[in-house]
Amino acid sequence: MDFVSFTISILKMLADFAGNWGLAIILLTVIVRACMWPSSVSQQRSMRSMQMLQPKMKAIQERYKSNPQLMQQKMMEFYKEHKFNPMAGCLPLLLQLPIFILLYTALMSPQFIQQAGNANFLFINRLDATIKSTAGQSFDGKFVAGPYDSFSSGKTAVVYLNNGKVLNDVKIDRPTKAITVQGDIKPNQNFDLKMYPDSLNLSFAELKEIKKAEINVIDNQTKETEKITFAPMGNILVASVPTANVQSSVHYDVIFLVLLFALTMWISQKVMMAGQKNMQQDPTQQAIQKSMGTVMPLMIGLTFVFIPIPAGVLLYLVTSNIFQIVQTVVVNKQLDREDEAKKSTADVDLDNAKKIDAKEVK
């Protein structure tokens, strides 16, 4: 089982438990973020330490600015002395990136579209929908395709042999290159697809006995997926596929999700900066952080307008942002209590310090 199939299996298990695929995505997000809680706490602790140590770090940089090599050595000694790892704050981001890519791939895959692409959740009409898509619906027997569209196959096929034997999960080599268009694609007219039998992982004897092959075919431009039946013709497998006119439609529920993502990301940045307001910070760095806290949500939100992100992935990102907001508030309170405890301990030690009377010098 590959990672995409494994992810969909987990989502299906959660969907069976929760009764909805949208709730399954939310539960998966909470589980993933809960598992990452220790690393996220480490990130916030590292950021707070960096803010507190910033003046001393700047002093070292100013003192040794004429000798970069020595400055680097002193900075490393400073990090070691204060047990500070400047890369600790990057770990949660690095862990989230492959999860995002994996979930994006899973929700764009034919397996998910076939099982839950048309599932809805709250105001979301389809979990596989992007902001702008064609009117084509997967697995309805026809493609909404244009003259410049290209196609890929799924990873496996169901092959029927002349002797009545059915071979399930036959691996397809190089799925992105296995299927090509023969001729031109014209709206409302059938177009032809072809593939070479050698793309199927079968023995030579089985290749000669192919009666037909059922393959999930994906339009690379629209991600619409159809189950197409190929039949042998000479030395190739061919299929004739009906088409419909290309009609683009805008999904306002997905637009709202993008706006919700930008808003929750902005709130998350504000909450994170609020936890640093009592710390000594360089004014220039503070201005940069404030600007980035506003610009980054807008930039990423606009990026999602042009990149086809499925509603299910946006639901994951929004849930992750909300989790981050709650986590930041909780952890900041915990760190504030730790700082207060350290301050109280330091005050007690100072009060208990032995008082030395000055001696009169004659």
Short description:
By secondary structure, the chain is of the alpha+beta class. It has helices at residues 3-18, 21-35, 37-63, 68-81, 91-107, 110-116, 204-208, 252-274, 283-306, 311-351; strands at residues 132-134, 143-144, 151-161, 166-171, 180-182, 191-195, 210-219, 225-233, 236-241, 243-244, 248-250. It folds into 2 domains: 3-114 and 251-334, no CATH class; 134-244, no CATH class.
3D structure, described in words:
52% of the residues lie in helices and 17% in strands. With 362 residues, it is an alpha+beta fold. The protein has 2 domains: 3-114 and 251-334, no CATH class; 134-244, no CATH class. The longest helix has 41 residues, at 311-351.
Write the layout of secondary structure elements.
Blueprint lengths: L2 H16 L2 H15 L1 H27 L4 H14 L9 H17 L2 H7 L15 E3 L8 E2 L6 E11 L4 E6 L8 E3 L8 E5 L8 H5 L1 E10 L5 E9 L2 E6 L1 E2 L3 E3 L1 H23 L8 H24 L4 H41 L11
Parallel strand pairs: 2-10
Antiparallel strand pairs: 1-11, 3-4, 3-7, 5-6, 6-9, 7-8, 8-9
Helix pairs in contact: 1-2, 1-5, 2-10, 3-4, 3-10, 8-9, 8-10
